[in-house]
Amino acid sequence: xxxxxxxxxxxxxxxxxxxxxxxxxxxxxxxxxxxxxxxxxxxxxxxxxxxxxxxxxxxxxxxxxxxxxxxxxxxxxxxxxxxxxxxxxxxxxxxxxxxxxxxxxxxxxxxxxxxxxxxxxxxxxxxxxxxxxxxxxxxxxxxxxxxxxxxxxxxxxxxxxxxxxxxxxxxxxxxxxxxxxxxxxxxxxxxxxxxxxxxxxxxxxxxxxxxxxxxxxxxxxxxxxxxxxxxxxxxxxxxx
Length: 240
Ligand code: G3P
Ligand code: CA
Description:
alpha/beta; Glycerophosphoryl diester phosphodiesterase; GP_PDE_dom; PLC-like_Pdiesterase_TIM-brl; phosphoric diester hydrolase activity
């Protein structure tokens, strides 16, 4: 059965990458959450998608040039006013909360544009501190970083994120010791999923919000999907 990962929490209905968004994923019984991490100026691993706070908060500036204390004052709820003030979570805060449930956690390292120093080490340290390795998947568009994670923590699964269609990326993925491919969903068809499985790679396409496309992905027997609407995805999965 394909796992349903609530993308940036439940970003279709709640402020992305905030605790209320992750809690909504738990409420609708998604299998997992997906979140994005970066490093604040003082080395705190924070949960936010963009390299600046401009789009998702009421502040401006680069994430990496602000301390966690400064970031924490910002309101990361730019869209769903009914949820009021929603701070940028630290990864520590999310992992503490996750300890009380059974959600899988896809931690996307957002280090493909800004090369955060030791983001891999700091993220792994937190996952180990909360003993969550068996429930964590690391992913990134920075594939070298995924190889680094496997070297530092060989027991934690890694996945390669990519946008463009790749031709038979099996050997490439094996060389990086990745266990999964996380492709942009329009690049995925049935033969790709079958070939990936034949080459011992899991497939979890992103980000799928249309019901018809969810159904198609489930029929292809992908291992998981990322969606902003996990509740809707659960209904589609039950009917497929
Ligand atoms: O992990 C899947 C997806 O989150 C990757 O794209 O831009 O939403 O982080 P993005
Ligand atoms: Ca992401």
